[in-house]
Amino acid sequence: MHEFNWGLLIVVYLFLGGLSAGLFFAAGLANYLEVDGQPAYPRIARMGALLAPWPVALGSALLILDLGNWYRFYKLFTHFRWESPMSIGSWLLTLFTLIAFAYAFAWLPEEWRMKLFSKVPATWKQVHRLNVDLSAHRKTLAMIGFPFSIGVGIYTGVLLGAVSARPFWNTNLVAQMFLFSALSSGAAALLLAMVLDKRNPIETHETKFLITLDIVFISLELFIILPYLIHGQLSVLAVKQALWLILGGPYTVLFWVFFMGLGLLVPLAIEVYELAPSLLKGRTFHGSRNLALAASSLVLVGGFLLRYIFVYAGQLSSFHKMGMLH
Amino acid sequence: MDIRKRRYALVIDSRKCINCKACVVACKAENGVPTGNFRNWINADRQGEYPKLRIDFTPEQCHHCEHPSCVRVCPTGASWQRKDGIVLVYEDDCIGCRYCMLACPYDARYFHEESGTVHKCTLCNHRVDKGEVPACVETCPSKVRVFGDLEDPAGRLHELLATRRHIVKEPQTGNGPQLYYLL
Fold this sequence. Notes:
The structure holds two protein chains of two kinds.
Chain A: H1 8-32, E1 34-35, E2 38-39, H2 42-51, H3 53-65, H4 75-78, H5 85-107, H6 110-118, H7 125-128, H8 138-161, H9 174-196, H10 204-233, H11 237-243, H12 252-281, H13 289-316, H14 322-325
Antiparallel strand pairs in A: 1-2
Helix pairs in contact in A: 1-2, 1-3, 1-8, 1-9, 1-13, 2-5, 2-9, 3-5, 5-8, 8-9, 9-10, 9-13, 10-12, 12-13
Chain B: E1 8-12, H1 22-31, E2 40-49, E3 52-61, H2 69-73, E4 79-81, E5 87-89, H3 99-103, E6 110-112, E7 117-119, H4 125-128, H5 135-139, E8 145-149, H6 156-163, E9 166-167, E10 179-182
Parallel strand pairs in B: 1-10
Antiparallel strand pairs in B: 1-8, 2-3, 4-5, 6-7, 9-10
């Protein structure tokens, strides 16, 4: 049987990279929204900014560990090959991570920043020069970061979509699918983090904002997944045979029950159930803590599973082996 | 110096193939291919039901494509193509990301555990550069494989491809494969 060249580390990386992109996007967006001239969601903006750089940093480390020669990873940056999605992606990922860290730094509370720099030896003057207050530049940093976060979200899909030898991946829909899944994961992760933060209990308007955002992203994701399935069925034989992997083949249950069901439709239903009364009937939004916990966790599971299914099933698809799989 | 343009390729008369796998063994011995990995192999496609059945043997390896997708996706340029068409991996630049293995429609590459890099058929470039033919071609007892230069109008490949019907595998991938199978 076919062996898998890309495994769990790649799945985790694709998930974490997308998660950071989503966190940055949601946090940056929250940073721009105002009510009566006052920031509308400052705590969401801060939480997202502080969380955003870490998943992608961890993911990039895993990516390097997955290489056959991890110590040669620097060669990714001594060559630039515009035809290779991985080459473009490496630069994109690095720049995004740097911007995300700078943005997190700009949101660091003054006392945390002082505490951090108090641990740096006083003789390291160059390092202490970095001890500056960037809070006035938050909006600029967010604006610079937006295209990079979108870029990273899309790139994780392009990495797979650009492989013409794998019909399961090679469609122009995978990139958007991964992007909207990433943005949805980011909004869900923020909701989860805010709900779990017991020292600063989440407020109703914050829950409402994040749930609304997630409903938008999940809906967009659905609008991509359905055409992906329908168009694939109407496509050439190789693509149709590749789709069999999730339409009767080994990944069918994982895709339909766990990803589409538990990871997408159930959280969407929960979120719509929460939002609908205030949206349609003008009632006050309450926002149950437990439902928010459930929906956000499920969205994250779904985001992970989407990448899992795509990485593994995609490697099984090809132009010449599919006949034998049936 | 000979500056004439060259384009090396293989023509495979698979009807002559008896599935003896001498080419596979010769390749392994010539190139030190590890156990469990192969740079070339023989597909056996069965058709029909007993007593009306047939089996086709088609030797396969890297197709040294005209537009190799493995070379395109390589992030460091370690996968590259010589002017004479031979697709190679420059090992010092290979980081072992295995993207090229996914990009190859023919699954012709393998991961070399020891070096942490990707290996593949080199069309025995070390032999070809000395004027010899690849090991698989030299060893084949039923003369299935013909190695040559497509740019040589007086060459054997020209003659075979001009006079015999032939196909390439999976041309729809757009890679422009250069293993020609005679019908």
